Amino acid sequence: MVQQVTKGIKISVDTTFEGTFYKNYKIQFAFGYEITIENQSKDSVQLNARHWTIFDALNHVVIVSGEGVIGKKPVLKPGESHTYNSGCLLTSPFGAMKGYYEMVNFSNTTKFHVAIPTFKLSAPFALN
């Protein structure tokens, strides 16, 4: 598990290898991840958007941006957390993801970024 705190918002990430399959005649490596967003600050906040950079061992880079996470824009009061599961496909058995969430602080209406720490994606069969 990797963790990072930015402006009182703690991000924790766990990953899993889900398997391989073929898509468009190419092998794909499927990875899942579980992210917990914990509000350790004294203010209520809302997650509005996400921005990802996804890398694989073959030097492919994919940028993904969008509103919320899995269709939600969670509001977190102090001490609350939100956990969700998602996944990605890579064209190699190794890779990594990193990014940030765009959030708003309800006490002063300021927008801020919360770093999502870089986390590795690796298929267990490919490890030495």
From TrEMBL:
Record-annotated membrane-spanning stretches: none
Entry-linked InterPro entries: ApaG-like, ApaG_domain, ApaG_sf
Domain of life: Bacteria
One Pfam family linked to the record: DUF525
Residues annotated as domain ApaG: 3-128
Name used for this protein in its record: Co2+/Mg2+ efflux protein ApaG
Organism: Lacinutrix gracilariae
Gene this protein is translated from: apaG
